[in-house]
Design a protein that fits this description.
Strand content: 15-25%
CATH architecture: 3-Layer(aba) Sandwich
CATH superfamily: Acetylglutamate kinase-like
Number of helices: 9
Largest sheet: 8 strands, mixed
Order of helices and strands: EHEHHHEHEEHEEEHEEEEHHEE
Structural class: alpha/beta
Shape: globular
Helix content: 25-40%
CATH topology: Carbamate kinase
């Protein structure tokens, strides 16, 4: 049966979560969109600078590398806490505004991964009905990006800036109408507008356009998210946190090779 509402997956990166006051701003934006006809699923990164702080904390205490494998495991567990904090805080902010909200971890959702700690890949989302049921009851789930659970039942992280990857995977699995990746710039440019003014705004591009892969190599886009969209396309917009204008990623252009 066709559902009577649209579902938006909205991902907020660390550049949007740059201070605690940003939580109120984001919560207000979410509350203004939620309705009988529009439902939302939120994916969050850690607060700006939180992951870097946790990484530096480990580097300051690592001595003997005799237990290197165990250290890598513990480092992933540590880094995953940044998203848990931001998910819970944003959920509290939404609840404070009268919005039915609940945070969900990768473990709760059964986001399974394969590959090395620090750079794993998502293979399945086994408990996706938890999100579908909550959304269907007019709730706003807030999901931790950047992480999953491997075959040993350990937390793994997906690589830097990979909450975009988490968002498009979740959007695909809940059959969302679109996935919106909110950044601190209004869409994509031919370069990084935070570093130079000699760039042009990109309104739309197919997901297999070479320029997108170039931006991925520069760390402006998540390469894993791009690769996933090439195989499992869902309408994806890269938007500025201050408005809903930006860049739309279109389906693959068969005349281009990714």
């Amino acid at each position: 049966m066709k559902r009577k509402y649209s579902i938006l997956v909205n991902k907020f990166g660390g550049s949007c979560l740059d201070h605690y006051n940003a939580l109120t701003k984001i919560a207000n934006a979410i509350a203004s969109k939620q309705s009988e006809w529009i439902r939302q699923c939120i994916v969050v990164s850690a607060f700006k600078g939180a992951t870097e702080h946790l990484i530096s904390s480990t580097e300051n205490i690592i001595g003997n590398n005799k237990f290197k494998t165990q250290i890598i495991r513990e480092k992933d567990r540590l880094l995953s806490t940044g998203e848990l904090i931001s998910a819970s805080l944003l959920t509290i902010a939404l609840l404070g505004k009268g919005i039915k909200a609940k945070s969900f971890s990768a473990r709760q959702l059964g986001i399974k991964t394969q590959g090395p700690h620090g750079n794993s890949n998502i293979t399945s989302v086994d408990n996706i009905m938890l999100l579908n049921d909550f959304i269907g009851n007019n709730g706003v789930p807030v999901v931790t990006g950047f992480q999953g659970i491997n075959e040993a039942n350990d937390v793994t992280t997906l690589g830097r800036n990979s909450s975009d990857y988490s968002a498009v995977v979740i959007a695909h699995h809940i059959n969302a109408d679109s996935c919106n990746l909110y950044k601190d710039v209004e869409g994509l440019y031919t370069g990084d507008p935070r570093l130079t003014s000699n760039v042009n705004k990109i309104n739309e591009l197919p997901v297999n356009h070479p320029l997108l892969w170039t931006l991925g190599e520069k760390g402006i886009l998540c390469k894993k998210a791009l690769a996933y969209l090439n195989e499992n396309y869902i309408k994806t917009n890269i938007l500025g946190i201050n408005n809903d204008t930006g860049t739309t990623l279109l389906p693959k252009d068969p005349q281009l090779s990714a």
